[in-house]
Fold:
Amino acid sequence: MFSRKNQKEDILVGLDVGSTAVRIAVGQIVDIGEKKELHIIGAAEAPSEGVHRGVVTGIEDAVSSISACKEKAEHMTGVPIERAWVGISGNYIMSEESKGVIAISRPDGEISEVEVERVIEAARTVATPLNYEILHVIPKSYTVDGQVGIKDPVGMTGVRLEVDTQIIQGLSSQIKNLTKAVYRTGLEINDLVLSVLANAEAVVTDRQKDLGVAVINLGGATTSVVVFEEGDILDAVILPIGSEHISADLAIGLRTSIDVAERLKLECGTVLSRDISKKEEIDLYDLGAIEHEIVSLKFAAEIIEARVEEIMDKIEDVFKKVGRSGALPAGVILTGGGAKMRGLIDIAKRKLRLPAGLGYPLNISSVTDKVNDLAFTTAIGLVQWGVLAQNSMRKVSFGRLFSPSKVIKWFKKLFSFLKF
Structure:
């Protein structure tokens, strides 16, 4: 068993609080020859209660779900889990562009880390909507005395430094509710990270980001989309529609329970109705229905296909908004629990007119096969985000990470004195 000192120094934990399940991934950096590699030593999940569409709707239920998952992970790894990188999602997340401008204060005009921090802070002064807080300020490119497209200005000389950034904001009340639920389990929060950004860390390469790629996380209640080009984020959007809506459509269309519909979707469902014969049928009793009822698998596939096409149309609208409809050379990477549906890649290629593939975590080793479960990519991505942050690489790839630190510090102080 690891000591508490080792836990603090060596162990990185990602916590994904989803609408259908809470998932935790526990990782450690190990030496492989002359290289270092992220090794996932455990992953656990528990049913999610008190969370709907990424929003905490019941604190007590959410605390119970997170605690149950935490206990499973600790039992599996033998490691006391004390702190985690926590994913945040939901349709209350907003993304917008902002620009920061400063004058270089050093007599010799050389740009240092201090000037970079100052210009990013200047971009952060964008007027936020009422009751919203900034989660991330992500630098896209810098401009020095009119020279545009600079990725790292440190060491350059000039009198004026500008930065173009992407600002990710979240509703203050929801940030506080998620933070409160996590702290009540005894966990400390390293930082709050937009879940789809963590996904991207896990499943795409720097080359794909440079060429142009979109990461699509098909969750239970939401679908998250982030678009990259030339290494920069063009947009990050969370759509209020997910794989749970497919189950609901099946329940209504087949006049059965939501549990039976979910099993049908996972075990027998496909997105491509044309591949199913009209003669193919299934007895819902075999899937848990109370009575025998024969239904057409082709009809079920048509229901699934209609909803998936709607999701793809909304994703296409995101691409049109940033002017990248059918114009992402590295295509789309699909991940999340909803990406397990058969035929999803084919329909994504057809509807989005782009290359498509499934997103499995890259450059990791593991003792658990859950790393190949698409539903765990967010939790694993949060661990990888933590690795980059600890190695001070975040500043190079995404810029300084700004979290709602005041909220976190306030809850940390509060819960150190209160007992629940």
